[in-house]
Design brief:
The protein is of the alpha+beta class. Helix content is 27%, strand content 28%.
């Protein structure tokens, strides 16, 4: 009986606490007709600071990047290639981490319109340029998680 009560308390603690937290954004799956890159970053820095830094960096790289909207937990932007031919939609979803007080960022860049699936790493470089130019790659606890399945062209990227 004690085992059942202990197990119930543990489950309630695990799942009861998650009700107050924002649900994690699912890792992106590629659209069959668009080049897409999804990555996840971890920081030991609060999400409000990460959000502000990324939004400022997007504005600093205008007109190549255009900020659409920014909140402490979500950022939307567009990237237009220097030749003006290709446009990519960029989103950042930020979630506070409980244990470290840091931030988990799910980022996605996807080419708009009908394109080839392999973009030579363009979508990855869109995301990488923002996080590295802002200095966030040097932040405490920075870690990037992606691969060729989540980020088409990642292995070919030359940013």
């Amino acid at each position: 009986m004690k085992t059942v009560l202990l197990a119930s308390a543990l489950l309630l603690g695990l799942f009861g606490c998650s009700v107050a937290l924002p649900l994690p954004v699912p890792f992106p799956y590629p659209d069959p007709y668009q080049a897409v890159c999804g990555t996840m970053w971890l920081f030991a820095t609060p999400c409000a600071e990460i959000s502000t830094t990324v939004a400022k960096q997007i504005q600093a790289l205008s007109p190549e990047y255009m900020l659409i909207s920014a909140t402490p937990l979500a950022i939307k932007a567009n990237h237009t290639s220097p030749d003006g031919i290709s446009v990519q939609d960029i989103t950042f979803s930020l979630s506070p981490t409980i244990v470290t007080g840091g931030c988990r960022v799910s980022a996605k860049s996807s080419s708009l319109g009908f394109t080839g699936l392999l973009d030579g790493g363009l979508n990855y470089c869109n995301l990488h340029k923002l996080v590295s130019a802002s200095g966030l790659t040097l932040s405490p606890g920075y870690m990037e998680m992606t691969n060729e399945w989540a980020c088409l062209g990642y292995g070919m990227a030359k940013c």
